[in-house]
Structures are given as structure tokens and as C-alpha cells.
Design brief:
Elements: H1 9-14, H2 17-27, H3 29-34, H4 37-61, H5 68-92, H6 98-104, H7 106-124, H8 134-148, H9 152-176
Helix pairs in contact: 2-4, 2-9, 4-5, 4-9, 5-6, 5-7, 7-8, 8-9
Amino acid sequence: MKKMNHTAIPAVLGAPFLFIDMWVGARYPDFATTAPWFSGFAGLIYITAWLRSAENLRRLLDNGKRDFGWYAIRILMCTLIIADISNVWAIVSTEKPLLFYILDAGWPISHLLMFPVAWAVIRSGIFRGYQQFLPLLMGLWFPVGMLLGRNDFALYFGGLYSTIVWSLFAIATARATNSTVLSYLTINHKNY
């Protein structure tokens, strides 16, 4: 029996929290104004879940060499940690000086850093089929979101896009790191 990777479960559960945060902010602007901690809380769950999947990917990419993939995943993880610091800040304080916005830049930078991570994943061959392109799709979320602007289509498309792609990425990394908990959620599982 394979050893279970229970740490992958939070990655799947945290994937929809960006959508939840976007939806609450758009549909209940008064709540977003009176409870600014909520966005930080949702962001903390979402980014920490992404960090969990990134850690699984780091383990998969580690080949004993300090190659491009070694650096790409670690730099990504650093920007995710910086983004989480800004999320904690948003939870505990309503003050947002320049330092907050500098830390908060870790979030969009993390999306853009998924492009070099995607290249490392595709080059390494650790995933097959559509799974090898999931990091690329993750990297495209931010630029596509900026092009769509702020409207209902962008809200639902961006929210569903992030929920689906980040969930699939969490499942792919969990499955590849020998997780039996989530591997049954994938379509092409070989243990019927």
C-alpha cells in the first residue's frame, strides 16, 4: 500500500478561496469594507494551499542538481511566502503602508513566475498529458485576468478558472508524490 500524502488535501480545499474572496468583494462590497480581514484570510488559505502544491512540485523537481527547475520553484515559493506575509498583515491590521503593497506584489509575481516553473515541469517530464501544462495555465491566470478587466464575466471566468486549474494542479502533484488519498479523483487512474 502506498503511503498517504495527507498534506495535499489542504491544497485542493484551498483552491476555491481566491474565487470566494473575489465573489464576496464584488457582491458584498459593504462587507469587504467593514471586514477587511476577510480578504486577507481567504488569501492566506489560497496562497498557503498553492504553497503546499509548490512544495510537492519542489520534491518532484529535485534531481540532485541545481538546475533551472531547482531555482525556479524555490523563487516561486519565496514569493508565495512574501504574499502570505501580506495576507497576515491584512488580517491583523487595516493600515496599509507602502511596505504592505511591496509584500502584496508577491501574489501577482508568483503568477508570472509560474511561466519558468512551467518550462521546468515540461522539460523534466514529471507529468504526462494535460498535467504538464497546468503550471502554464496557472501562469496565464493573472495576465488573462488583467485583460478581462473588472466585470461579471471576468469574476466568474477568473474564479472558476483558478479553482479548476489550482485543484487539478494540487491533485497532479499529490498523485505524483504517491498520494493515494487524492489519486482516485483523477480520470486516468490505473487502479480501478
